[in-house]
Amino acid sequence: MSVTQAPPGETQQQETVRGPRPSVGSALRSAELDLRTLGMVGLLIVIWIGFHFMSGGTFLTPRNLWNLSVQFAPVAIMSTGMVLVIVSRNIDLSVGSMLGAVGMAIAVLQAEILPDILGFGHPAIWLIAVGAALVLGGLIGLLQGLIVAYVGVPSFIVTLGGLLVWRGVTWWITAGRTVAPMDSTFQLLGGGSRGSLGEVGSWAVGVLACIGIVAILLYDRRQRIRYGFKLRPTWAMIAIAVVGSAAVLGAVWVMNSYYLPENVAMQVAEQQGIPWPEGGLRIPMGISYPVLIAIGVMLLMSFVANQRRFGRYIYSIGGNPEAAVLSGINTRWTIAKTFMTMGMLVGVAAAVTVARLNAATSGLGTLAELYVIAAAVIGGTSLAGGVGTIPGAVLGALVMQSLQSGMVLMNVDAPLQDIVVGIVLVIAVAVDVYYRKRAAQ
Length: 441
What we know:
Layout: H1 24-30, H2 35-54, H3 62-87, H4 95-118, H5 125-151, H6 155-174, H7 198-227, H8 234-256, H9 262-272, H10 289-307, H11 309-319, H12 321-326, H13 331-357, H14 368-378, H15 390-409, H16 414-440
Helix pairs in contact: 2-15, 3-10, 3-11, 3-13, 3-14, 3-15, 4-5, 4-6, 4-13, 4-14, 5-6, 5-13, 7-8, 10-11, 11-13, 14-15, 14-16
């Protein structure tokens, strides 16, 4: 083997071999952060800032953000169930009509039937109404699921028929009249001046949420060590904990920055014997009950989707139905239970919606299916099945409600609002198709 030396007077240069410089994308991937989710967060920030300037500085105010949080809760609740339905390679177009039928039924139950049996103001009325919403929604969802799974009718057709049927049932229950008012305790589920935690309770929930974020990160790290999986970088864990906790505490601060209306505050001061100060009494509203319910549903559905056998079966069916059957999964019953779960979540959303409006009308839930499906798709749920996350759908619901709220502040006509929502839905599906093609390459 010959060795070539550099000629005299000539300096031999050596190249230093260096690896590729880490990019922002590679750093985010090493931290296991979904770029699509981060993109949605960025989109949400752009929407908020844009509407804030276009609305003359009224969008990013505590009052509007508090109302936005209450309004997005029903869509967020239903979108968690729509994720599982779409992941299983199905669709549910009837959720808006189901919400109307269930909402009208429980309104009649607590406004006209139960008072004659139990008496007005009985403490069990609101419990019975909520229980009836869950049962009725679950039964409707199970009926549609059984037709899809065992009869073999495509879910698009079954739920399209349900969209028409349950809308007709909503009108038929009361012949189109409005039913009101609701039980006073039941109204708390819809938020309002009494349906919130207040300042102390909100800060307590915020602190618990921060502790929960840290605990989840530590538990995930311990599980990875236990099973020999790749660990997330320490800097990423610290960053996620800091940013997540800051977001939670910031949200609590905003909710506490919105105060009770003056007339309601005067009533509270009179009831509690508080002297009315010269400059008025500021009583923070805090986190509303609908938001708490939506967060609780998100956590529960995330646990079911990621940690329970039922959730894993749904993702298996959506990823490869034939392999799921060969592996012994009862795919028919799993799909039927998926629709039943969707129906129960519609029942929860119906209770929140009727409580917030303190009434039920024949138009309750109209076009809600559009917002729910759009929220799931924007949140990263693939219409091809097998892919989707619960938190992503909730974030998608917040994006959809932000668009609607901003357009209302700008006095945009309702038909134009529908046009915008339709365009956003098409763009979301186009992005999903792009990501799937890119992943297949």
